[in-house]
Every structure is written in structure tokens, then in C-alpha cells.
Amino acid sequence: MNIEKLGFNKWFHERTDSAKLTDYQIARVITVNKESYIINNGKKDALMMIPLRSFMTFFQENPY
Questions:
Q1: pLDDT tens, position by position, 5-63
Q2: In this predicted structure, what is the pLDDT of residue 11?
Q3: Residue 24: its pLDDT value, please?
Q4: Distance from C-alpha of 62 to C-alpha of 12, rounded to nearest angstrom
Q5: Degrees (nearest 5) of the Cα angle 11, 26, 16?
Q6: Are strands 28-32 and 45-49 parallel, antiparallel or unpaired?
Q7: CA 47 to CA 39: how far, in whole Å?
Q8: Helical (H) or strand (E) element with 30
Q9: Rounded CA gap, 3 and 9, in Å?
Q10: What is the predicted pLDDT for the residue at 54?
Q11: Could you give the CA distance from residue 41 to residue 56 in angstroms, rounded to a whole number?
Q12: Is the CB of residue 40 less than 8 Å from the CB of residue 47?
């Protein structure tokens, strides 16, 4: 799966600050539970718990 299949289209691409992509990846929340989320970056799913700080660390340390 790629990020386009998750809805990342031209509209989002035009509004993306490419300078921030060196530190962050684009991802989408695909499932919401009471205190957890499943997030997909177009290549894999990641279960994240509150606080979302762990989300940022996960994708920075595990780009694929």
C-alpha cells in the first residue's frame, strides 16, 4: 500500500512543507480506539498509545 491509497492526493501534496519531511513522515490515522490509534505511513501499520509522542519516535526510528 502507498500513501496515495490512504487519501494523500494533490491537495495535501500542495500543502505539505517539504522541509519538514527530513524530520517527519506523512502518515494517516486509520483506526481510533479510546486511548490508542493505528497509524499507517503507506508501508506499515503502527499501534500508538497516548501520548502521541511515541508515534513521532516510531516513524523517525523505523522509516520502513
A1: 888 899 988 998 888 888 888 888 899 988 888 998 888 898 888 765 555 555 555 55
A2: 92
A3: 82
A4: 23
A5: 40
A6: unpaired
A7: 6
A8: strand 28-32
A9: 9
A10: 55
A11: 11
A12: no
